[in-house]
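Q: Could you fold this chain for me?
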Amino acid sequence: MNLASVDPQLADLSNKLIYSAMAVYTLAMFAHLFEWTFGSKGAVAVRSAEQAGGLAQTLSAAQEAAKGSRSVTVTVATADGGTTTLTRTALADAGATVVTSGRSDDAGQDGPGAAGGSEKGDLAGRIAVSLTVLGALLHAGGVLSRGLSVMRWPWGNMYEFSCAFALTMILAYLGLLVAKRNVRWLGLPAVLAALLTLGLAVTVLYTASEQLVPALHSYWLGIHVSTAIICGGVFYAGFVVTLLYLGKDAYERRIAAELPLGRLGSVWHRLPAAGTLDKLSYRINALVFPLWTFTIIAGAIWAESAWGKYWEWDPKETWSFITWVAYAAYLHARATAGWRGRKAAYLALLAFACWLFNYYGVNIFVTGKHSYAGV
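A: Sure. Below is the predicted structure, expressed as structure tokens.
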């Protein structure tokens, strides 16, 4: 390494900015946790008001249905996933009992959001978003100063790629907010994942700022790797939404089956409807899929320029193609009526698992022409 080609002050500034971003993201994570905590109380209050408003009607309807019964017992699910039982004595002589449970009005409807109608929760959420924006600015400064320290694109090894990848996770989330999407509930998993990615980067994957190996001295680094980083961040957003869809779908199924909702009932209640999450996941993955296709094509062109062949089935090339096939299968399945919903969601999770293995597994554990991990 030519030490004269590295600016140690900028490299040190980059490290400090990355650690500062991690500190701010940690505060943002706690603010989001407070939002969900306060929102749980707000959601309980909202559900209690709804139940109070419809309670008389529920009891009357149950009593009417149980004409000839001596008593009517109505079991009503509460917002925190518990139940409450109410009884009204009938005038008839028979001893039948009618039991109703669950919250069928929740199924298919978007929830109130992480704050759950709580003013304290909403304030915590707005503070969390502000902290996330500040963290993103520090984070971007760390990535930029890392590149300026060696006057090149700042993603020549796994440490640099991980820092940029974590930044795109946050930017994908903030981009959805700027687009007026009601996705503040996505803030906690986005910030948590960015912290985990940066934590792994600074502890396991860290390498000092240095110049690139000769094969990476190309303008294609700024094209091919940049698009790969963007795809990774957006794919992650789609992955989180898919996971939440599966959880919300299970929640709505339990409502329909009149089963107990458990302690996380309030959390699932505040999320958008399963159908909304399903559509959002599909749209996110469909939006970025063409860019992933371009990433693979750009990599093939760069390979021909560097090594004289467009494709050699190198492990990185192979797993990039496997990831492309997996996402193509998901999009095709999602567009086919018989494969919408949970089946397609499982394919989306498999596709993201392929992407993660292509990044971490291939780079760290598999030797090939793309072995530039720096660890």
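A (continued): Residues 51 and 196 are 40 Å apart (CA to CA).
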